[in-house]
Write a structure and sequence with these properties.
Number of helices of chain B: 5
Largest interface: A-B, 24 and 21 residues
Radius of gyration of chain B: 13 Å
Oligomer: heterodimer
Largest sheet of chain B: 5 strands, parallel
Number of strands of chain B: 5
Distance between the termini of chain A: 17 Å
Number of strands of chain A: 0
Number of helices of chain A: 6
Radius of gyration of chain A: 14 Å
Structural class of chain A: mainly alpha
Shape of chain B: globular
Order of helices and strands of chain A: HHHHHH
Structural class of chain B: alpha/beta
């Protein structure tokens, strides 16, 4: 896979972390895709409520989930959102939301194209 | 091996549960408050946990506080932490300060996220839980 695709989804790293267990890898990738949109909605609602601590916790949780499936670019964006929320910069978190959504869509497309889902 | 997985993120929870289910019964808590309640219930029913995988940064009650409360419950029953439940703290890489604090709260090991199942298995073997 080209380097930029690996940035979206690093299958090698995921499988290495799961002792090569392909079935477990597919299970958590599917679980992540089902759960992530809901988690993104929660992040939006925390922002709407002006809840910086809640937004920080939620971005942290999303970051962890993205890292778990080796969605590296998505993980980086969520990490930026977490840092912005920790600094109380909710406008910056909000500005990151479309990029996070875009990256999530790109992840889905990449996983579909490569036969992971 | 009876395990309590304490994790607020669904994907991380799914990974731990799917992997650890091969080695025995797994229960789930999504924050520290639930973890302490589950531990207390297990203690009262005599069905002790052998292992707790505890996330640090969670809503309601964080992992460090929950670990401290669990050790206090053990101590109240006369168990030393060396004989008590094995606790593995799971944490993000940017959380090193919390890892040090976790050892003060008497955890037995820590794992950086994202979880590597080989490393997790290594800890469980070192602890002679399997």
């Amino acid at each position: 896979l080209p380097a930029d695709v690996k940035d979206v989804f690093n299958a090698d790293r995921l499988l290495a972390r799961l002792m090569g267990d392909n079935s477990l890898a597919r299970q958590i990738v599917a679980g992540f895709l089902k759960d992530a949109p809901q988690q993104l909605l929660i992040l939006k609602s925390r922002l709407d409520a002006g809840d910086a601590l809640g937004a920080r916790m939620q971005a942290h949780s999303l970051k962890g989930a993205a890292a778990t499936v080796s969605a590296e670019a998505l993980c980086t964006l969520c990490s930026e959102a977490q840092e912005a929320a920790a600094a109380g910069e909710l406008t910056r978190v909000r500005a990151l939301l479309p990029r996070i959504e875009e990256q999530l869509n790109l992840l889905k497309a990449t996983l579909t194209q490569s036969g992971w889902i | 091996m009876r395990t309590l997985i304490v994790e607020d993120d669904f994907t991380s929870r799914l990974l731990l549960q799917s992997f650890l289910a091969h080695y025995g019964e797994c229960h789930i808590a999504v924050n520290g408050t639930e973890a302490v309640a589950a531990f207390r219930a297990a203690q009262e029913s005599g069905q002790h946990y052998d292992l707790i995988c505890m996330d640090i940064m969670m809503p309601e009650m964080d992992g460090q506080t929950a670990a401290q409360e669990i050790r206090a419950l053990e101590e109240a029953r006369g168990a030393l932490s060396t004989d008590g439940v094995r606790i593995i703290m799971t944490t993000a890489l940017d959380d090193v300060k919390n890892v040090i604090a976790s050892f003060k709260a008497l955890c037995d090991a820590y794992l950086f996220k994202p979880i590597d199942t080989g490393m997790l298995l290594g800890h469980i073997k070192e602890m002679h839980l399997i």
